[in-house]
Amino acid sequence: MSDWEQIRKEIIGELKPTDEEEAQLLGFADKTITQINKVLEEAGIDALAEFHGSVAHGTWISGQQDLDIFLVNEKYVRREQLQIALDAVRAGTGWVFTEAYAEHPYLQTKRNGYSLDIVPCFRVEEGEGLHSSTDRTPLHTRWLDARLRGMGDEVRLLKRFLMTLDLYGAEIKIGGFSGYLCELLVVYYNGFLGFIEAASRWGKKTVISFSEEEPRRFNDALTVIDPVDSLRNVASALREDSYGLFTAAARSFKREPSMRFFRREVIDVSSEMVLADLRGRPSDILFLVVEEGKADVPDVIWGQIHKSRQALERQLVQQGFNVLRSTAWSNEETRHIFIYELESGVIPETVKHMGPPASLENNVRQFIDRYRGNPRTVSGPDLLEDRWYVLVKRDYTDIRELMKALLANGGSDIGVSKKLTVRILQHHRVLLNEEIGGYLVDGFEVFLFDWLKGRPQWIE
Description:
- This protein is an alpha+beta fold.
- Helix content is 40%, strand content 22%.
- It folds into 4 domains: 16-137, Beta Polymerase, domain 2, CATH 3.30.460.10; 152-261, Orthogonal Bundle (Poly(a)-polymerase, middle domain), CATH 1.10.1410.30; 271-346 and 396-453, Alpha-Beta Plaits (2-Layer Sandwich); 350-393, Alpha-Beta Plaits, CATH 3.30.70.
- The chain has 15 helices and 15 strands.
């Protein structure tokens, strides 16, 4: 038995549900579907509850406790039918739900140890117009039904491979490969190894289509045309850096298949390990800690976090601080932490500001008028070779003072999301380096330890 065959056998043994586990989940799913359909019928709603996603496709992983149940309205009359179906299920079952939002509302609940997403949609046929984005989901199940048979384990291998790389999931937090995308890629390349072989040869951009027609062009690193909707790129959530990281990992795996691509090394990280790394670091790490009140659903939270992180970074750079890299962490309930690695948290008071070329008369006159007699001018304006320049005082030289100014109104005027602006005004802390010590809990210490290391596990 080759190394790869041994690895494959061992990993599939971990991932594939047992017959007992599968019977238990499917039994619960059928019972739940029956109960919801009874509620819909009694409410006079022409809709059927169906389960879709990885459970319906036969690609779910052992230990998975998630079920996607769709309320499929048989005929479209008006969009309000989506909410009406949800309201009927909420009232008729008596279960405790949380209402979440994507393109439209859906319900989340926990029953018998399982997490349920209950999503309304409309019944459509392939080629018909969509009334909501979730209308595609039953079509996905139908399309995959015949094509994916016998390849469930291949999809499971790909999912675990991506999980180890932190690239599994299309949500904003991850920006990786969705479960449906994994299934399509396994079908297209006829298995996990076929996909890895192909991905190891991918260039800057890759386009995959199941149709012979010329595919629509998308400005994404990876384009996988949805076989049930030619106007949709299934891989649109995949970030460019995630695409590059995946192709590099595929090449490395192709050269030397190893268990490290399927199992993450578990390190017992202590706060002292993280603090020691921070103390010995030649750069400065800036932290903005924001305490949350009532959090939104994770995808909404992460949209706000990413928008705000980028807005703050733009301001730091604009004020002359060299941001080497940045990230963010959240427990998705009570706390968000923004992290910026700076070349230095203190920068020189004087900066050279370059002006126009000497040949541009009007621009030169405006430049001289602007800086001549300006209280911020240290020296100049003067000519350096063929360009005018001036030495000026910076507005801020200490990162703490800059952050204090930027967050005086919660960051509302620099692009911080509205909800986070409110939270920042209520409570935030700006910390440098080891000052973060009191927050190295709740999994943040592991996240920060890995981020400070700054390289994927498979490179070790």
